[in-house]
Amino acid sequence: MSSRRNNIPRTKRIHRRQLLRGWGAVGISLPFLECMQESVSAGETHTSSPPKRSVWICAGLGFHAPFLFPAEPGPLKPNTPYLKQLRDHLDQVTLFSGLSHPEQQGNNGHASSLTFLTSAQRPGLAGFKNTISIDQLIAQRIGMQTRFPYLALSTSGRSLSWTSGGVPIPGSMSPSQLFRELFLQGNEQQIASEIARLRRGHSILDTVTQSANTMAKQLGSNDRHKLQEYFQSVRELEHRLTQSEGWVRRPKPKVDAEQPDDIRDKLMAIERQSAMYDMITLALQTDSTRTITFGISGLNAAPKIPGVASDWHGLSHHGKDPAKIEELKLIEQAEFAAFANFLGGLRNIQEGDCTLLDQTTVVYGSNLGNASSHDWHNLPILVAGGGYRHGQYVAHDPNQNTPLANLFVGIAQGVGIEIDQFGSSVSAGIRGLETQANA
Which InterPro entries does UniProt cross-reference here (predicted)? Predict the structure, then answer.
């Protein structure tokens, strides 16, 4: 497993002081250190808690529901094939059914992947315009506190993240490149070059904005509205450029891990997922960001998993063929095993009196409830960590689904974002998501 290759411990807890060892005095300037419960100086303590984070993961080919959901709601037990993979972490997981975004019929069976984190309606059809994704809304509010406002990751290049103007954000696919950006410090010449590049970006934006302002006087109302959306995107980019310049000269954190090698073979799908999970753990562990998305795409080929010889996408359209379903189970069990390993890594990292998983809300699910028929109702959604009361299977109405965006509002509030509505939500929270304090 790549988790071992990248030297992220899985069996012993890691103290925050161990992570910081070797940073040096000037390196202790990251905002996270103000939130640590224990100082690097012996005997000195802080009263504030470690920061809250969120990770949003979507598996585009879904999961075979009978292998995930128990027969009845109630306490989670390892009594389905996929829950068995999570047996060590069921006390930190809540499983939801009966959730969906409304009006997700689109221009193709997989169009709902465009709106998994936005809840915009009728994806890809005439007149469709996407909206901001929940991770980007969160990043707008708290992203300035870390070197990276967010990370948008993917196994295919297409991420789950969308700007406030409905523009897709490309997904990073390379763990090695991500490692370099997170942890490898450039020399003085490289730092100067990076600052110059950022300032050129500011200059270009200034010129473009001036031209657009002149043009606006000659436009009709519809075009002026579109231009205002463009200006909003420009302002967001300006904020990010300003933030990036402020972080360029700050030393990057040092980690006890080697730069990973990218797995070029796309058929090694589970290994590629695990490698990205490792990078997510490192990014959270070093407080390099507090908001991460990870889009997991399937394959139009057979992944290299023992016992699997058929095209993954084809298996997802099993048409209730028992042989195909059994082969599909091998793939999806491997996915859940990789996810369980990721949760275990977060649990093994200690932050004061809690763990990294306690401080990180992880949403793991799919935009398809039944991939075989491209059905976007009754989505499989798991929430792990984040300080919530867990260990339950919570079943919402399978016929009148609860808006998934209700869950998004509750999670956003949990990481400190003061909102009471997002997308298609009709409630600020959801039955089954309760903090330990309210339990």
Answer: DUF1552
Q: Facing residues of 296 across strands?
A: 59
Residue pLDDT, tens place only, 194-250: 556 555 555 555 666 666 666 666 667 667 666 566 556 555 655 555 555 556 667
User: What is the C-alpha to C-alpha distance for residues 420 and 413, in angstroms, rounded to an integer?
Assistant: 8
Please list the residues that pair with 93 across neighbouring strands: 384
What span, in angstroms and rounded, lies between the C-alpha atoms of 382 and 396?
A: 13
Structural tokens at position 424: 């298609």
In three-state secondary structure terms, 310 is coil
Phi, psi of 362 (to 5 degrees): -110, 120
- 276 torsion bin: left (phi>0), alpha (psi -120 to 50), beta (else): alpha
**Among the listed residues 59, 62, 115, 69, the one whose alpha carbon sits nearest the alpha carbon of residue 94:** 69
The residue type at 34:
E
> If we measure between CA atoms, which residue out of 1, 22, 9, 20 comes closest to residue 257?
9
What digits encode the pLDDT tens for the residues 393-406? 999 999 999 999 99
**30: how many CB neighbours lie within 10 A of its CB?**
21
The domain ranges of the chain are 1-151+159-182+268-298+327-355+384-439, 186-250
Length of the chain, in residues:
439
DSSP category for residue 52: P
Tokens of 358: 């306690």
Q: What's the token pair of residue 84?
A: 């068995």
Instruction: State mean pLDDT over 328-339.
Output: 98
Residue 236 in contact with residue 164, Cβ under 8 Å?
yes
Round to whole Å and give the CA distance between 359 and 284: 10
**CA–CA gap between residue 211 and residue 402 (Å, rounded):** 46
Secondary structure E strands in 341-409 = 350-351, 354-355, 360-365, 381-385, 392-395, 402-403
**Average pLDDT estimate for 33-41:** 35
Whether pTM > 0.90 for this model: the answer is: no
CA distances (Å), origin 251, targets 27, 131, 148, 282, 404: 5, 35, 14, 16, 40
The position carrying tokens 């128990």 is 70
